[in-house]
């Protein structure tokens, strides 16, 4: 089958230019305390890529200069392991920005892979800065979670959620948002977001006494570590066929690259975190690559988005984005 | 003889209409309506029933398809395994309830 994404768009009569720039998503490090089997970043304790202090400064300058960029979405790796993480959060909050942290939960409990320092202060820090915490929890049961994220991860994730709950995260009326992310543990599509969210809420509350706000469902992108697994197990072609068969024009309209840019640790700009990992750097209409070091908002918004067959992952079924289903 | 039950053959299911298209169209319409929609039963409940039937009828295509379908409608492995136990228990019960017939006949034979 032809898995060309742009063919699907043209068949459906859809054009997807950027709409605006509301979110600056910054991948500040590929260092992680975990090594998940599906990770599109190929993050692990062995990775060393870190955004420089000059890069962080530039991101903050961009946020300060452009009030329409209301959100800073910090990701990794485990972004909390970057030495400049806390300063970046504090200063972005000082600028009045909404700050989201892609927090893998277990980083609270594991020692820093490079320094051995305790990271137990994170829930208190998040609460003081009133950041939105977005955490992967592939399932409300141990079996799938440990299969994907490593042995013992489920138990540690529950303990980390308890500590976040103790700071008010996920607790009604606190204003502190703890949102979870579900992704399938294999080559299949996520269940309906609302139904699964209800299951998660009931099961996590009843079995473990932990609470959260919303569940975001995301499909696995057929790139990097997950793609390799699919290839090795002979499931790549069937998975691509499945994504293609589930192409949903309504989900395509809501793809996140229309309102977000993704910044790599070296300051290069991409349309999304997946393009970043595939090194598909964004370029303006004149083919000049985009970077934070010569950032121009109008050039960025006028750029043509770069698509590839992996984009079928964001448009299958109810759609996938950093904020969950899009249709 | 070549092998039966190649997993890639499942993709050919749609081709059963080659020699009887109208009947195949009717079947697939009914099949989709019965199994793939939320009705008085949810899609999840229907998928679990279908998974149990797949095991009882020993259909490898259906077991693969409904294992995936169960996950895509949010069933968890405990629910899936319990559904298979329902199928297994029903089959055991069906076997055992026939022993009533055996006993009836035994009574007729015994003086």
Write the layout of secondary structure elements.
The complex is a heterodimer of chains A (327) and B (111).
Chain A: H1 5-12, E1 23-27, H2 53-65, E2 71-75, H3 85-94, E3 98-102, H4 122-129, E4 132-136, H5 142-149, H6 153-166, E5 178-182, H7 193-208, E6 214-217, H8 224-232, H9 236-245, H10 249-253, E7 260-263, E8 269-270, H11 273-277, H12 297-301, H13 312-315
Parallel strand pairs in A: 1-2, 1-7, 2-3, 3-4, 4-5, 5-6
Antiparallel strand pairs in A: 7-8
Chain B: H1 21-35, H2 43-56, H3 60-72, H4 77-97, H5 99-109
Helix pairs in contact in B: 2-3, 2-4
Defining traits:
heterodimer; A: 327 residues; alpha/beta; globular; B: 111 residues; mainly alpha; 5 helices; 67% helix
Mean pLDDT of chain A: 95
Name the largest protein-protein interface in this structure. A-B, 15 and 9 residues
For the residues shown, what is the average pLDDT of chain B?
95
Instruction: Give the spatial strand order of the biggest sheet of chain A.
Output: 6-5-4-3-2-1-7-8
* Percentage beta strand of chain A: 5-15%
Approximately how much beta-strand content do the residues of chain B carry? Answer: under 5%
Overall number of strands of chain A? 8
The major β-sheet of chain B equals: none
User: Helix and strand succession of chain A?
Assistant: HEHEHEHEHHEHEHHHEEHHH
- Indicate the percent of residues in helices of chain B: 55-70%
Spans of chain A of 5+ residues with little confidence (pLDDT < 50)?
A: none
Helix-strand sequence of chain B: HHHHH
Distance between the termini of chain A: 25 Å
């Amino acid at each position: 089958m032809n898995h060309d994404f742009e063919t699907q768009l043209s068949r459906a009569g859809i054009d997807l230019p950027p709409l605006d720039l509301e979110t600056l998503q910054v991948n500040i490090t590929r260092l992680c305390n975990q090594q998940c089997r599906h990770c599109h970043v190929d993050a692990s304790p062995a990775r060393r890529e870190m955004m420089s202090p000059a890069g962080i400064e530039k991101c903050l300058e961009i946020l300060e200069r452009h009030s329409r960029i209301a959100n800073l979405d910090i990701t990794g790796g485990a972004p909390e392991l970057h030495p400049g993480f806390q300063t970046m959060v504090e200063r972005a909050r000082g600028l009045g920005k909404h700050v989201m942290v892609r927090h893998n939960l277990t980083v609270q409990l594991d020692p820093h892979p490079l320094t051995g320092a305790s990271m137990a202060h994170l829930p208190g820090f998040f609460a003081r800065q009133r950041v939105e915490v977005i955490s992967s929890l592939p399932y409300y049961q141990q079996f799938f979670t440990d299969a994907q994220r490593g042995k013992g991860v489920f138990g540690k994730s529950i303990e980390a959620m308890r500590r976040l709950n103790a700071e008010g995260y996920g607790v009604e009326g606190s204003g502190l948002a703890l949102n979870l992310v579900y992704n399938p543990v294999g080559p299949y599509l996520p269940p309906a977001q609302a139904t699964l969210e209800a299951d998660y809420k009931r099961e996590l509350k009843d079995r473990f006494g932990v609470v959260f706000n919303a569940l975001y469902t995301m499909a696995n992108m057929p790139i990097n570590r997950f793609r390799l697994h699919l290839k090795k197990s002979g499931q790549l072609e069937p998975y691509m066929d499945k994504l293609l068969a589930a192409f949903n024009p309504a989900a395509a309209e809501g793809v996140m690259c229309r309102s977000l840019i993704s910044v790599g640790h070296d300051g290069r700009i991409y349309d999304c975190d997946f393009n970043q990992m595939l090194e598909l750097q964004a370029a303006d209409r004149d083919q000049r690559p985009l970077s934070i070091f010569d950032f121009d908002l109008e050039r960025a918004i006028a750029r043509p988005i770069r698509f590839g067959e992996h984009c079928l992952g964001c448009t299958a079924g109810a759609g996938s984005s950093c904020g969950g289903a899009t249709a | 003889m070549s092998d039966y039950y190649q997993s890639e053959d499942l993709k050919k299911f749609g081709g059963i209409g080659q020699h009887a298209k109208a009947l195949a169209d009717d079947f697939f319409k009914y099949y989709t309506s019965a199994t793939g929609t939320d009705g008085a039963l949810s899609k999840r409940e229907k998928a679990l029933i279908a998974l149990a039937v797949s095991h009882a009828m020993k259909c490898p295509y259906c077991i693969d398809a409904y294992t995936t379908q169960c996950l895509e409608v949010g069933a968890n492995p405990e629910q899936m395994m319990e559904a298979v136990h329902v199928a297994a228990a029903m089959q055991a019960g069906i076997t055992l309830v026939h022993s009533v017939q055996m006993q009836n006949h035994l009574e007729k034979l015994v003086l």
